[in-house]
Structures are given as structure tokens and as C-alpha cells.
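Continuing the series of single-chain predictions for the mutant panel. This is the parent chain; the variants come on the following pages.
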Amino acid sequence: MVEKLTLKRHPLNPILIPNPQQEWESGAVFNCGAVKGKDGRVYLLYRAIPKGYTRKPDGQGYNNYISSIGCAVSEDGVHFQRYKRPVLEPTDEFDRFGCEDPRVTRLEMDGQALYLITYTALFAPAYSSYGNRVALASTEDFRTFQKHGVVIPDLEDKDAVIFPALIKGRIAMLHRIVPNIQLVYFDDFEQMTNSQEDFWSGYLAALNDFTVMRPEYEWEAKKIGAGPPPIETEEGWLLIYHGVDDKGVYRMGAALLDLEDPLKVRARSPYPLLEPEEPYEREGDVPNVVFPEGAVVIEGVLYMYYGGADKCCCLATVELRELVDYLLGF
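Parent structure:
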């Protein structure tokens, strides 16, 4: 019997909270992607909402709720300095109702490193139950950011993450058409940003063949979704993901995917690595949520960044080797 592993919450949690001094992030800051920059520092991209949103009369979500994406930088992965302005804002038709839940991947293509940012673009108001698309942006230096538009067209889709290395020469992306996690390959950057209609019609016709994981356990019965970009280890791609149960509680899970063929799941924990227990995870705009989106490895320790109750940014840690060995025990 494998003993259940729980990530260790950082004693300074939450590491980012709403900032009343900057209107655009005065209401909530949460769901943060993370990556090491070329300068060795940790960059955190997070979802930010200004004050002024109000709960809907039916209690299902909020009105006047529009997200942008902020950036913060850290020398140690714990203490962050925030930018004064958002780095991605809802300025285009495809994301005019919000830029949500960024993930960021450092990927080398043609000898050049580029940071690719996937995010949820809303062309309809938040909590409309539709209007969610996977969009892409990029940066080379975390100073200038470029939007590339929607990359998975005409599909209600979220939780897209790009692998930090080419797989058999192709760009690999995990995404989530409810309730499962799927994998799609692109031959190159051009195909990813300008794919033709027949590419997606053919893909959708064989969607079952590209499904990586389905909900298996009670704590993830409603749906699952990828967290941060997978982390390459000798034993496989470490995938941290979230699972939602029938009561709407969000927990954090983990799996190992095959290095050469990520459609193959090598190992998967039947237990969550983290679940809402602390007040900052249980009480917020959406209660009972731990939502992983960012991960970096610092001196062998996995730093997991996650959103707490759709209100704040949090950090939990574990030795990377310990987590991989734990998964291999199943």
C-alpha cells in the first residue's frame, strides 16, 4: 500500500493577494502560470480582476467580471515584484470579455527560445457557459508580448498547455474538451497559429484516439484538466492536473506520461496531491478550489503555483524525485 503524498504548503501563503493600489488587480489575483526566464528568475503570469464585480442573482458566478493577465518576477520563487500594468488585456474581439488562466512554456524552435503563453479567451461574458477559446501569446523577454489569436477554433475548450520540448519534431499541446484531457500535435508554429478547417475536422472525427486521460476517481468525477506544462523527467512527462468532483471541489492530481508517446499514461495517483483545506483555499469568489497552473524546479524541488478559491496565488512544494517515485509506486 503506497502512503498518500501531500504537497507542503508554503508558510507565506498566499504569496500574491489583490492589490488595492492598482485598480486592474484590486479584486482578485489567482490561477498563475510560471516559468524560469533566461535570466534565471521566476516569472509568474496571473489572472487579475478589478473590484466592482457583483454576484449574479442566481448565485452562479459574477457580473462585470473581466480578467486581464499580470506578471510578477522573483529571485527565489517565493517573493515576487509585480509589474505595474497587465501584460495581456482583453483588447481584441476574441478575448474582449477576458484573458484568463495563463500557462507559459519555454520552447526552443529553430535554435531560438520563445515563451509561449496559452490562455482562455472569452468572446462572451464570464459564466455564460459558452464563449471560451484557447488563445496563444508569446514573448522573448517578458517585456514585449504578442498575441497570436485563437489556436483551437470553434470549440469550447480550456486548460491548454504546450510541452517544453518538441516531440518527434512536432509541437505538442494538451487541452480539455470536457470532461477529458486530449493531445494535439502541430507540425510547426505556422500550423498551430493558422491551422486549416480540415485539420480540426479530421482531428475531432478521431478525438477518442487523442484522449490522454479520463476521470477515473471520485475526487475528479466531473472533469479533469491539465495544470502547468508537463515537466520532463527520466521516467516520463510529469503532468500535474486538476480534478473536479460532483460537488464542484477542485483538487490537484498527478500522472506520468510516456516521453516518446504522451498518449500513454505510465502512472497516475488515485489520490489528490492537494485539496482545499486552508481558509484561502476554502473561502473566496469560488470556494473550495486549488487550481494548479505553474511549476518550476529549483535545486531539485518542485515549486507548484496554484490559485486559491479564485482569489489569491499560492505555492506548495515537494522534492521532484519523491513525487516521481511516489507515482511509480502505482
